[in-house]
């Protein structure tokens, strides 16, 4: 069940455990690596219980408690235009919740699709010289194509032109007739064809819709839904269920909109024919009515579950919907009209509607006329799905407006995916391959630092669960990044490369801890960056199946000493530069991105960092440090130099010195 709750910040790691936990036999028992005596077993049990308590019971199996099924939906996308980055953003949010929920033991149905009726579609088809059905078929395919491009794991892709949907929409209309909530009248007022929405005089802004769309005066015969009848019931429901609309700012907007009452809603049109015909006997006005596109479109959530058969297996399992994710511009339809229709039809209301913000481009609203619309297909072909997914769900507070920037996308990918996670994995696994025979090392006694990091890794799951359930999706990547940062600090402090001769048992223990933390990072990465998560799990020799679900979090599924590890490889390459002239290409591996121009102050600061990094390399070499430590310092130096302009003097290659004849002799 999706619940809202306080956005729990990452708590500090649990305090170190009793020193008795550091005994080798107890540490091994905690990870299932030894068979102790009865006395030792009791001591280990007490120690294990202490570890569970102090880590927030993080080692408990994710499937220990029966989980409710989750029905997660995007709005169905209107086929009057091509997909844009906003469509990707909505689908991505749903995909992350769906993936997390499946890994966490929930049965999930993730629905998306296209809305294909209405006056705007009819007009667009006419301009394109196509029939409305042919036009809808063609554009719907462009939305469907986003699923594999972005690794969206939708279970159903629904279209409102399907026969099953027309049957469901007609059934809902009949239910509204039976409830006495439909009546025939005449509508006269402002209507936006682009928005497929009616507006009052008071809502217009400079003669246009609040969205900026043009409006036209419409006068026609229409059926009306008695929306006014449901204002009080709907307001009471919203107030009694604070999680029903999120975030809180959007909930307040809906309540404010309803404060002065709700007007009955026109729910049929007679001036065009591309829609679901109104069922029943011919109306008294003798005109042919089609259903208002929003009443038609919203019904898709029921269609996908088998409605009007409310005894269908999917309907019984998944309705009411757990979560509708929508853009803030269509919140009114989902938070007012949709629940009112359901109340009238005697159906349960969805558990939650969450509205996210809009994406700007470099501070400007995206517009075809300005030429700054982000093409989601070209974007994913350039960078691959994981970098785009990670950026969109980590850069901006989910629910607020965001500013899209390819520069920030590249910087975020390099800092978090390539350096923080990818470099950690490659350093650890490469060193393990060389020093431990390409197998999981056997740990010796765990130190307090070891136990603290292991506990922190397992304790992250309930925090991530809170972030997903509260739709604080931006905090998810931040949480995973926090664990990766802790692991990087750990490897720098423990310095396993310095232990290989003096303390080989300690070296193996440090590597074991790092490999276990990497396993957790791989598990947690799967909802947002599924390709990176899968690649890292493969690097750790974790087969597909239950070992990749959240039931594997904690000690019960720890990697066993001696388990072979595949040859290490880089799970994510740095993005170096982008050739703006290229229009795309294959998906991963991602192409490179141009380094943005630095200000004088930024360049001076970066030059200072390069100088300090170079000094560290020289110092390590002079002190006789091991090749692994020197190599890490050199990698940092090269990374900093790569951020300088290509023609900077620090990037200039030194001229080769010609040997003198005397030297040759």
UniProtKB/TrEMBL annotation:
Pfam families reported in the protein's UniProt record: Anticodon_3, tRNA-synt_1g, WHEP-TRS
Keyword list, A-Z: Aminoacyl-tRNA synthetase, ATP-binding, Ligase, Nucleotide-binding, Protein biosynthesis
Compositionally biased spans, kind Basic residues: 654-665
InterPro entries per UniProt: Anticodon_Met, Met-tRNA_synth_2, Methionyl/Leucyl_tRNA_Synth, MetRS_core, Rossmann-like_a/b/a_fold, tRNAsynth_Ia_anticodon-bd, uS15_NS1_RNA-bd_sf, WHEP-TRS_dom
Domain WHEP-TRS span(s) in chain numbering: 602-658
CDD domains: Anticodon_Ia_Met, MetRS_core, WHEPGMRS_RNA
Disordered: region residues: 644-665
Top EC category: ligase
Gene3D superfamilies named among the record's database cross-references: 2.170.220.10, HUPs (3.40.50.620), Isoleucyl-tRNA Synthetase, Domain 1 (1.10.730.10), S15/NS1, RNA-binding (1.10.287.10)
GO terms, biological process: methionyl-tRNA aminoacylation
GO molecular function annotations of the record: ATP binding; methionine-tRNA ligase activity
Tree of life domain: Eukaryota
Record-listed E.C. numbers: 6.1.1.10
Family: Belongs to the class-I aminoacyl-tRNA synthetase family.
PANTHER family assigned to the protein according to its UniProt record, in alphabetical order: METHIONINE--TRNA LIGASE, MITOCHONDRIAL, METHIONYL-TRNA SYNTHETASE
Protein name per the record: methionine--tRNA ligase
Source organism per UniProt: Emiliania huxleyi
């Amino acid at each position: 069940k999706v619940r809202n709750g306080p956005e729990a910040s990452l708590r500090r790691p649990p305090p170190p455990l009793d020193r008795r936990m550091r005994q080798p036999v107890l540490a091994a028992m905690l990870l299932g690596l030894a068979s102790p005596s009865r006395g030792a077993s009791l001591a280990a049990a007490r120690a294990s219980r202490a570890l569970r308590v102090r880590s927030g019971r993080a080692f408990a199996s994710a499937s220990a408690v029966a989980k409710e099924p989750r029905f997660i939906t995007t709005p169905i996308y209107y086929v009057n235009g091509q997909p844009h980055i906003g469509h990707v953003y909505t689908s991505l949010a749903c995909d992350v919740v769906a993936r997390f929920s499946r890994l966490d033991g929930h049965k999930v149905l993730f629905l998306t699709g296209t809305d294909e009726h209405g006056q705007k579609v009819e007009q667009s088809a006419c301009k394109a010289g196509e029939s409305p059905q042919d036009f809808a078929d063609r554009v719907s395919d462009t939305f469907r194509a986003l699923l594999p491009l972005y690794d969206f794991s939708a279970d159903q892709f629904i279209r409102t032109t399907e026969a099953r949907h027309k049957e469901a929409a007609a059934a809902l209309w009949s239910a509204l007739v039976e409830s006495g909530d439909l009546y025939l009248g005449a509508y006269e007022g402002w209507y936006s064809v682009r928005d497929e929405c009616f507006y009052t005089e008071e809502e217009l802004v400079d003669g246009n819709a609040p969205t900026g769309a043009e409006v036209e005066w419409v006068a026609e015969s229409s059926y009306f839904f008695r929306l006014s009848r449901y204002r009080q019931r709907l307001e009471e429901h919203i107030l009694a269920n604070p999680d029903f609309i999120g975030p809180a700012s959007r909930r307040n907007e809906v309540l404010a909109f309803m404060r002065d009452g709700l007007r009955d809603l026109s729910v049929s049109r007679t001036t065009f024919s591309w829609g679901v015909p109104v069922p029943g006997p011919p109306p008294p006005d003798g005109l042919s009515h089609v259903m208002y596109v929003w009443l038609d479109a919203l019904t898709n959530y029921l269609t996908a579950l088998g409605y009007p058969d409310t005894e269908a297996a999917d309907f019984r399992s998944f309705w009411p919907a757990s979560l509708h994710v929508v853009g803030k511009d269509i919140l009114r339809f989902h938070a007012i009209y949709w629940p009112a229709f359901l109340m009238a039809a005697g159906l349960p209301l969805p558990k939650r509607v969450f509205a996210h913000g809009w994406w700007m481009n470099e501070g400007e609203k995206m517009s075809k006329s300005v030429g700054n619309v982000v093409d989601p297909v070209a974007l994913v072909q350039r960078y691959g799905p994981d970098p785009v997914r990670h950026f969109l769900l980590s850069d901006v507070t989910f629910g607020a407006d965001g500013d899209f920037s390819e520069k920030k996308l590249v910087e975020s990918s390099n800092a978090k995916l390539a350096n923080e996670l990818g470099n950690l994995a490659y350093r650890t696994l490469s060193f393990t391959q060389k020093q431990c025979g390409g197998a999981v090392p056997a740990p010796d006694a765990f130190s307090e630092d070891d136990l603290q990091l292991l506990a922190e890794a397992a304790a992250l799951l309930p925090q991530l669960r809170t972030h997903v359930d509260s739709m604080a999706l931006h905090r998810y990547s931040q949480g995973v990044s926090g664990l990766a940062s802790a692991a990087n600090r750990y490897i720098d402090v423990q310095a396993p490369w310095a232990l290989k001769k003096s303390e080989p048992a300690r070296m193996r223990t440090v590597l074991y801890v790092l490999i276990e933390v990497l396993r957790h990072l791989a598990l947690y990465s799967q909802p947002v960056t599924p390709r990176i998560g899968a690649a890292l799990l493969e690097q750790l020799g974790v087969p597909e199946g239950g070992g990749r679900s959240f039931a594997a979090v904690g000690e019960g599924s720890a990697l066993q000493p001696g388990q072979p590890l595949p040859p290490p490889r880089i799970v994510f390459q740095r993005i170096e530069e982008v050739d703006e002239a290229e229009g795309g290409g294959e998906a991963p591996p991602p192409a490179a991105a141009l380094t943005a121009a630095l200000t004088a102050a930024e360049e001076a600061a970066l030059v200072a960092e390069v100088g300090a990094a170079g000094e560290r390399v020289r110092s390590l070499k002079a002190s006789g440090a091991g090749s692994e430590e020197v190599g890490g310092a050199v990698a940092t130096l090269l990374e900093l130099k790569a951020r300088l302009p290509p023609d900077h003097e620090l990037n200039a290659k030194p001229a080769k010195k010609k040997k003198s004849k005397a030297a040759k002799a």
